[in-house]
Design brief:
Shape: globular
Radius of gyration: 24 Å
Bound molecules: adenosine-5'-triphosphate
Number of strands: 19
Number of helices: 9
Order of helices and strands: EEEHEEEEHHHEHEHEEHHEEEEEEEEH
Largest sheet: 6 strands, mixed
Structural class: alpha+beta
Amino acid sequence: MTASTALRLDGISRGFGDVAALAGVSLTVQSGELLAILGPSGCGKTTLLNVIAGHLRPDAGRIAIGDRVVADDGVWVAPQDRRVAMVFQDYALFPHLTVAENVAFALPRSQRKTGDARSRELLALLDVEDLADRRPTELSGGQQQRVALARALAQDPELVLLDEPFSSLDQGTRDEVRTELIGRLRQTGLTCIFVTHDQEEALSIADRVAVMHEGRILQVDAPEVLYRKPFCSEVANFLGRANVLDGIGRGETVDTPLGSYALLSQASGPVRVYVRPELVGVAGDETGDVVVEARDFRGHDVLYTLRLPDGSVAIAHRPSVNMVEVGQRVRIEPQPGHAALVPVAWSDRAAAAR
Ligand code: ATP
């Protein structure tokens, strides 16, 4: 293990009866990294956090935090001795304690004497210092989130785990709170792993994203790599909508019913490709053979559903300027960017390997 490795999981499995919640998860997280674990409901995200925190024992596998093995055959380090702090979805603040007391309660024994100053320092870091004397019931969701984070940091952790940290916040404030809190978390230089089922959230804030599916990690990569070069179709499908088109590869480009696009990897002859909707430009044209079937206006952008001459449907994602109307004829104007060859499904790959 290198000095900069904060967490290493090797072959972690954990079942509940017949359900394999984790089926051989291996993952390495670097110090200071912000890693998102992304996947649909029930894929094992929370179980993975609980296993890392020590709230659940794995059935098999090895966990090392920094250079210390905390779970392995015959090794078990209790949660309170792992220097891992977990922030739960419902924040789990103590209702009968004030904000400052909630934070002070989490301080290591050695810091209890100077606890008040340290608590206030952490509350200031999260910009909720002026709420120190309130109780959790007197706080908004976003404020509770900050206090929960301050309490996690009070534990002086090496690793911070966040389970769906922003899901309880309303849509209006979520983006703002998220950007600010992630910024403050980054200031600490701590290693953070957060779980989400929201692909936009994972792509927008994480350094790397691990995509989970049925108890396995299918791919771990930087957001742009995951989005542009998914390893398998499950990852591609989970990371947003795309037009799946039959085309003809011509080396570095591909001809499709939505025009010609650069290809990420070379191909010749018949191929199936993904063309993300933001690559599909549309321009009003009376002689065009594509018709706008629906328009989903979203404020700063718009999603068009297009009917192609062969009767199939495609989607285009455009800024909401120079909009075209439903029923209007348009021509497709491919935008700069790459189409990607549709990868093999992970399930097919796994079946072939058996
Ligand atoms: P969500 O996004 O809905 O929270 P998740 O990806 O976090 O889901 P987990 O909560 O880790 O998924 O659950 C993974 C699988 O293990 C699911 O099939 C779930 O029903 C099962 N499971 C989790 N905890 C338990 C438990 N204590 N007892 C029985 N089955 C469990």
